[in-house]
Design brief:
The structure holds two protein chains of two kinds. By secondary structure, chain A is an alpha+beta fold. Chain A is 50% helix and 11% strand. Chain A folds into two domains: 6-65; 77-158, 3-Layer(aba) Sandwich (Glutaredoxin). In chain A, helix 1 (6-21) runs antiparallel to helix 2 and helix 6 (92-103) runs parallel beside helix 7. The relative contact order of chain A is 0.12. Chain B folds into five domains: 3-89, Glutaredoxin (3-Layer(aba) Sandwich); 116-326, NADH-ubiquinone oxidoreductase 51kDa subunit (Rossmann fold); 336-419, Ubiquitin-like (UB roll); 424-512, de novo design (two linked rop proteins), CATH 1.20.1440.230; 526-581, Alpha-Beta Plaits, CATH 3.30.70. Chain B has helices at residues 3-7, 10-24, 70-79, 91-98, 116-121, 126-134, 137-147, 159-168, 189-196, 198-212, 226-241, 272-279, 308-320, 322-326, 359-366, 400-405, 424-438, 444-461, 469-483, 487-491, 494-512, 539-543, 569-573; strands spanning 51-55, 58-62, 175-180, 216-221, 257-262, 303-307, 336-343, 349-354, 376-381, 387-390, 414-419, 527-529, 549-550, 558-559, 579-581. In chain B, the strands form five sheets. A five-stranded mixed sheet of chain B has the order 8-7-11-9-10. Chain B starts with a helix and ends with a strand. Classes of the chains: A alpha+beta, B alpha/beta. The interface between A and B is large, with 41 and 55 residues.
Chain lengths: 159, 582
């Protein structure tokens, strides 16, 4: 059994408690875990499995099914590129390849080795009339270009 | 202010107005009449930020407003009495709205979305009051049946009939669920309704619950819509505080409340049985139908699931009567439909039109034609379950039957305009890439079939297509349509079949000639550097992942074709248009 830090233990306890109160929804439990830690840590699943007497595979089954859940930590900064149809026809692919090129990420990679940046694709954010759309952390950049995003990343890196 | 409006600076403009008014409000003449409200989405995203000034019954509309323009509007117009002419909307703005008919979006952009008093002032919750205090559930069902309202999520199932089945289903524990998953890429109608008028959806659910006999409702909303979730939460709180939800609503014996359930990023959860599985906390995998959710749904109890837009129509239909609603649209497609018009169009945004309007009217009169002035090539409707309508068919009526006849569907409302710079084979690949990655994996036809369809399209778009591929795509597609467990697999082949039907020549060019006429499919393009235009800046050299570019400083660079992997990076980074492709 891995020893959890006191703080992590406290957070997980709260989530497990809420699970019992709300009639037990694994998706909600995982969403709250990801909200707290930025991803679903292995230790969290072990904790819940023991505390709630549910097989780990059940949690993994749900966590791997839904696109929202991550099993690895994200970078400090999250760049989310929308790949919906409207964004696609307005060049989302070029934007993504440009961002990855700037950050030195290969096709299959999504987080820089220094854990500063994660690049994510999302199916559709619903801002279609502002295509192409990129989120830098929670800030929306509509009608954007690869150059504009690269410029912003460069200035973020300088700081 | 929808999020696009917020992205364009809507919140900053609102703040600028608030502080400017506070500043000038010191002068007695403007004190009482000025207040600024935030409203929902006005629909014409292209002209963000739109600002409406209402004074003594007349309305002036400004467009493209930025925060630094607010001072002048306040000083010259609000204080000085003279509108700033240069910043007013023009005739094109009027044209955008002229052919629209707003029912669902009627109050979006007119009222504060969350405030119950604002909703009440435009007749909100009066329909629910009437229904709960004076109508029988069967009266409600008859009214909705007579209106001809069909499900707006895409399937177009008659809503009144669904509610009747729900009413007749045996069991005293029933549920009503609002499907706010809106997974189609390119669709944002439901998002705008929940952000712009969440109470209309709540009221629709109250009426629906009463009609079928449910006491618990859920709104299943996708996690990618944080603003909609926030506004819905606030609206529900306010509705509860005003006793429109809870026990003994309007003093009757009827109890009803609504919980929010968040999605977690799965397109398949828009399918009703997968949605139910997700609400139950499981992997969102569909279940065989029959039994249909209306008989065995959430927790195996009778469940009615309706789309956001469908529910938002209910209060208006009850208030104004089925005859009024049925006076719009066509005989078998009554009422209006909200569409998200995007892509290569001059006026992208949300529109609401009577069913039966022609596609040409939508594209040219409302949309203003293509932004570039290039001719329309096709219009994609129905998202990943739909098809493309070629330019030759622009005069068709937009309704359920007509679109089905040309091989597409109305779908949830996404409408993407394409021009000659879009490759139809690439579009087919794009959609199957999407459905393949969203396939839940439960049934073999979809899990394996979408993968095989994608592989064939990947070969075609990278120059390894074979002439037998087209027939193979058609045969595989027929198999998926006939045998997949749910709508995702059953409709995944539609974009492929539709593009083969109308753009077979593009497929043949990719396969036989190894060419992409629209110059989109990178693997079929040859990249070369125009030596007279090259400025030898080295950008392409640095960007090339396969070291295929050589060139010292001051010498024009050159691409070694034997090393070139056709990724297109050099084309993307060259600032001098020296990299050519063809």
């Amino acid at each position: 059994m891995v020893l959890l830090s006191l703080l992590m233990n406290e957070i997980l306890e709260k989530i497990a408690h809420a699970y019992r109160q709300d009639g037990g929804n694994v998706i909600t439990l995982l969403q709250e875990t990801q909200e707290a830690f930025g991803y679903i840590p292995r230790e969290a699943i072990d904790y819940f499995s023991t505390e709630l007497n549910i097989a780990s595979s059940r949690f993994y089954g749900v966590a791997t099914f839904y696109a929202q859940f991550r099993l690895t930590p994200t970078g400090k900064n999250k760049i989310t590129a929308c790949c919906g149809t409207a964004c696609h026809v307005r060049g989302s692919e070029q934007i993504i390849s440009g961002i990855k090129r700037e950050l030195g990420l290969a096709d299959a990679e999504d987080t820089t080795p220094d854990r500063e940046y994660t690049v994510e694709k999302v199916a559709c954010l619903g801002f279609c009339s502002f295509a192409p759309v990129v989120l830098i952390n929670k800030d929306v950049r509509g009608k954007t270009t690869a150059d504009a995003i690269i410029k912003e990343i460069k200035s973020m890196r300088k700081k | 202010m929808g999020p696009a409006g917020i992205a364009a600076g809507g919140r900053l403009v609102l703040e600028a107005f608030t502080s400017a008014l506070a500043r000038t409000g010191v002068q007695a003449s403007v004190k009482e009449n000025c207040s600024s409200h935030q409203v929902g989405c006005l629909g014409l995203c292209a002209r963000d930020v739109l600002v409406e000034v209402h004074e003594n019954g007349s309305k002036t509309v400004y467009q493209y407003i930025k925060p630094d323009m607010v001072e002048r509007i306040v000083d010259e117009h609000l204080v000085g009495g003279t509108p700033v002419r240069d910043w007013l909307v023009d005739e094109a703005y009027e044209n955008f709205y002229r052919k629209q008919m707003k029912i669902v979006l009627a109050d979006c952009g007119r009222i504060d979305p969350v405030d119950t008093d604002a909703y009440h002032a435009v007749g909100g919750y009066e329909a629910a009051r009437d229904v709960l205090t004076e109508w029988l559930p069967d009266d409600v069902i008859d009214e909705i049946k007579s209106s001809g309202l069909r499900g707006r999520g895409g399937a177009g199932f008659p809503t009144g009939l669904k509610w009747e089945l729900g009413r007749k289903a045996r069991g005293n524990e029933k549920y009503i669920i609002c499907n706010a998953d809106e997974g189609d890429p390119g669709a944002f109608m439901d998002r705008a309704v929940i952000e712009g008028n969440p109470h209309s959806v709540i009221e629709g659910m109250i009426i629906g619950a009463y009609a079928i006999g449910a006491h618990q409702g859920y709104v299943y909303i996708r996690a990618e819509y944080p603003l909609a979730i926030e506004r819905l939460k606030l609206a529900l709180d306010k509705a509860r505080r005003r006793r429109f939800l809870g026990s003994r609503i309007f003093g009757t014996a009827f109890d009803f409340d609504i919980k929010i359930k968040l999605g977690a990023g799965a397109f398949v959860c828009g399918e009703e049985t997968a949605l139910i599985a997700s609400v139950e906390g499981l992997r969102g995998q569909p279940r065989a139908k029959p039994p249909f959710p209306v008989h065995k749904g959430l927790w195996q109890k009778p469940t009615v699931i309706n789309n956001v837009e469908t529910l938002a129509n209910i209060p208006a239909i009850i208030r104004r009567g089925y005859r009024w609603y049925a006076s719009f649209g066509t005989e078998r497609s009554r009422g209006t439909k909200v569409f998200a018009l995007t892509g290569k169009i001059k006026n992208p945004g949300l529109i609401e039109v009577p069913m039966g309007i022609t596609l040409r009217e939508i594209i040219e009169d409302i949309g203003g034609g293509t932004e570039s002035g290039k001719p329309v090539k096709a219009v994609q409707t129905g998202g990943p379950s739909g098809g493309c309508i070629p330019a030759s068919q622009l005069d068709i009526n937009v309704d359920y039957e007509s679109l089905a006849r040309v091989g597409s569907i109305v779908g949830s409302g996404g409408m993407i305009v394409l021009d000659e710079d879009d490759c139809m084979v690439n579009m087919a690949k794009y959609f199957i890439q999407f459905t393949q990655s969203e396939s839940c994996g439960k049934c073999v036809p979809c899990r394996v079939g979408t993968k095989r369809l994608l592989e064939i399209l990947e070969r075609i778009t990278t120059g390894h297509g074979r002439m037998s591929d087209i027939a193979k795509l058609e045969k595989l597609s027929a198999g998926l349509k006939a045998t997949s467990l749910c709508g995702l697999g059953q409709t995944a082949p539609n974009p492929i079949l539709s593009t083969i039907r109308y753009f077979r020549d593009e497929f043949e060019a990719h396969i036989r000639d190894k060419k992409c006429p629209a110059k989109v499919c990178k693997g079929l393009l040859t990249y070369s550097i125009n030596e007279s235009a090259c400025k030898a800046c080295g950008a392409c050299l640095k960007a090339c992942p396969s070291s295929a570019i050589t060139g010292a400083k001051k010498t024009p660079h050159r691409i070694d074709q034997s090393k070139c992997i056709k990724c297109g990076s050099c084309f993307e980074v060259c600032k001098f248009n020296s990299v050519e492709r063809d």
